[in-house]
Amino acid sequence: MKEKIYITRKLPAGIVKKLEGEFNIDMWDQEEEAIPREVLLEKVKDVQGLLCMLTETIDEEVMDAAPGLKVISNMAVGYNNIDVDAATNREIVVTNTPGVLTETTADLTFALMMATARRLVEASDYLRNGKWETWSPMQLTGMDIHGATLGIIGFGRIGQAVAKRAAGFGMNILYYNRSQKPDAERETGARFAELNDVLRESDFISILLPYSEEVHHLISAKELSLMKKTAVLINTARGGIVDEDALYDALKNETIWAAGLDVFEKEPIDPSHPLLTLPNVVTLPHIGSASIATRMKMAELAANNLHNFLVGSGEVKRVN
Ligand code: NAP
Question: What's the alpha-carbon Rg for the chain, to the nearest Å?
């Protein structure tokens, strides 16, 4: 009998087709709507493989509902939506999609940094709303990227890819990471510094750490108070790393100059969230890896991880 796989969001037909030959596939067939929790709990009952998105919380309840589950394949590099310890205890393998989204997410991080620094969204709205009546010397002025100091918090694949871009813009690069990266230092000119020094000295701070309990609210009121009044904070990692209440206060009170956010503590963010009322915040709906080519590669890698693990041959990007 073919093993059963459940896919929690509609994937491109070509990718599903590849799995269909080998497995019995069922899939939530909505693209824009996440699978309701009760449907997920029902659908996993008799599956061996689960291909999920970061929108699904895969916790003990889901695993208990799926006694035959052998592998959880997350279509993301971050896997904080999955209780990996609980999976390990049940001998369930968790996989992710590292590498294929590195450059695309670095592009978006740089784009968000530039958009925030030069007030692109605000400027576009200004024009569209009929406010552009004249040119004036200090109209919509922002911060320079070239020659500025960029502090990267989390200097892994994406952090280093951002540093390469920053080097091309003539930025001075600092980084904080749990281990030092001498090769990347040589390649990009980045220098290691302690977290508080990165916060104090940087004009732009880019967060690119994986989320874990250890880094929950790593950037809170105290850390924000160390930053320059002209600092721009960019978060394209995970929302929980930044304390949003403290960030709101810092932006409102102009303790820091602006923020660019692709990720939020609760996603989707409530449209009435106070952060969305501030002019000095650029917000995006978690689109770091959203290029057509990269999303296809992520779906393919997530499907391959599942396939290769269940058939027992080929590469599997394992988390545990
Ligand atoms: P990665 O290659 O694993 O890099 C993460 C880096 O963070 C590593 O260098 C690691 O240090 C460091 N690190 C981990 N925990 C730390 C801690 N507690 N303190 C200090 N440093 C720590 O991951 P990546 O591929 O660059 O991705 C980074 C994150 O970006 C993902 O986990 C994901 O959440 C997020 N992301 C977001 C989007 C989006 O759409 N916005 C897209 C892709 C990824 P070591 O090298 O010493 O292990």
Answer: 21
